[in-house]
MBL fold metallo-hydrolase
Amino acid sequence: MKLAPHLHRLGNDIVACYFIDTPEGITLIDAGLPGHWRDLQDELRSLGKSADDIRGLVLTHGDSDHIGFAERLRSEHGVPVFVHAADADRTRTGEKPKVAFGPMRLGPTLGFFGYSIRKNGLRPRYVSEVTEISDGDVLDLPGSPVIVGMPGHSPGSVAVHVPIAEALFVGDALTTRHVLTGRGGPQPAPFTDDPSQALDSLDRIAGLPASWVLPGHGAPWRTSPAKVGEAVRNA
């Protein structure tokens, strides 16, 4: 689905990933679930393009519902996968600390896991080779994405700022739809390693110029990053 010039979303409000389309090629932000591979192919075909036009995949963090088709894209098309150094091992192995689920409601929780099953999310394929990135890096990829460290959800969580699309991709630094309760609106994301640190990290995006804040779960949010921290904390 095209959201704006250069800006496309794959998936839905349960699990989403994104890409930036430019004349120089495509940059993907996250890779959703393995079954989103078909969604990616359909969207690329609608643009008259293919996976060979993708120049890089940037992960906001290394959890299984964000690495989806990353290894397939890397191994079959040679697309490099970028992830913060602190999440590199999580991306390669899936190893992560156990965290409390927090509040849950039966319907939304079943919906989340049911969607994950339909998209082959219970059989994650980890990424054999990654390119490690750091806070402040400007990647040599279409759209010149800027990496902003957002530790908390995971040690290597990042936001990805792409000025050409006025877009800020935040992964699970926040959510606009809680996958376990179904509650809408900006709020902290579940399955977070360090909730207090995640809230503190929201201050790191406050000064960025963007009109889209794009989470991995929930609806795209048309807002200024300056308003994000207060809205999530009030939730």
Q: What stands out?
A: The chain has a mean pLDDT of 97.
